[in-house]
Amino acid sequence: RKEVEQDPGPFNVPEGATVAFNCTYSNSASQSFFWYRQDCRKEPKLLMSVYSSGNEDGRFTAQLNRASQYISLLIRDSKLSDSATYLCAVPDSSASKIIFGSGTRLSIRP
Amino acid sequence: GAGVSQSPSNKVTEKGKDVELRCDPISGHTALYWYRQRLGQGLEFLIYFQGNSAPDKSGLPSDRFSAERTGESVSTLTIQRTQQEDSAVYLCASSTMSVGPYEQYFGPGTRLTVT
């Protein structure tokens, strides 16, 4: 099992819809989790950090399911500007660095 | 404040040449990471520096790759005898241990093309 796995997508949803995607991880000892957003030909930018069961920031909600070892990102009332690749990241077993998933592509259509 | 900067932004080189990529982290950030991202792929960890500790070089793909960092400032990633498969975007990120090593801030990357 890969350390961090994501559905590559693409997820293609209409503007205003709610969309959610998951990220599974193998390190059961992980205590923190991260979602980054990467626009086309740009660098990743930190979107949300999750240090407990979840986190909410406006239209974005991240939830952690420790039993099943996955984190989810839910986007409500999606905007055209939400179109991007969403990367999840989880500390590795040494806890010295984070491992990135390969990303989920999201495309919002008018 | 100033973010992470990288130079050059683009580099085209001939196969077999050496290249040097530079990263200036955010001031005060003790941790610095290098990643490689091939077109359409995820981030591949290369090397990690934390303060004065020995770097974690576990991600370097071959001995043609090396990196140095002077104290808690600038880092250079050197690729010797470049190959076409080295073509990728090389991203640098920094973080501060006061927040945690995981909230990383990325530079804009260097796009390397080996012809």
Tell me what the structure shows.
The complex is a heterodimer of chains A (110) and B (115). Helices cover 0% and strands 54% of the residues of chain A. In chain A, the strands form 2 sheets. In chain A, strands 2, 4, 5, 9, 10 and 11 form a 6-stranded mixed β-sheet that branches. In chain A, strands 1-3-8-7-6 form a 5-stranded antiparallel β-sheet, with no helix packed on it. The termini of chain A are far apart. Chain A is mainly β and 110 residues long. Chain B has 115 residues and is an all-beta fold. In chain B, strands 2, 4, 5, 8, 9 and 10 form a 6-stranded mixed β-sheet that branches. A 4-stranded antiparallel β-sheet of chain B has the order 1-3-7-6, with no helix packed on it. Chain B is globular, with a radius of gyration of 13 Å. The mean pLDDT of chain B is 92. The chains are: A mainly beta (110), B mainly beta (115). Chain A binds chain B through residues 32, 34, 42-46, 49, 87, 89, 91, 96-103, and chain B through 33, 35, 41-43, 45, 48, 50, 56, 91, 100-109.
Query: What is the overall number of helices of chain B?
Result: 0
Overall pLDDT score of chain A? 92
Largest sheet of chain A: 6 strands, mixed
Oligomerization state of this entry? Answer: heterodimer
Distance between the termini of chain B: 37 Å
> Over the alpha carbons, how many angstroms does the gyration radius of chain B reach?
13 Å
Number of strands of chain A: 11
Helix and strand pattern of chain A: EEEEEEEEEEE
Radius of gyration of chain A: 13 Å
Which structural class do you get from the secondary structure elements of chain B?
Answer: mainly beta
Low-confidence stretches of chain B: none
In what range is the share of β-strand residues of chain B?
over 45%
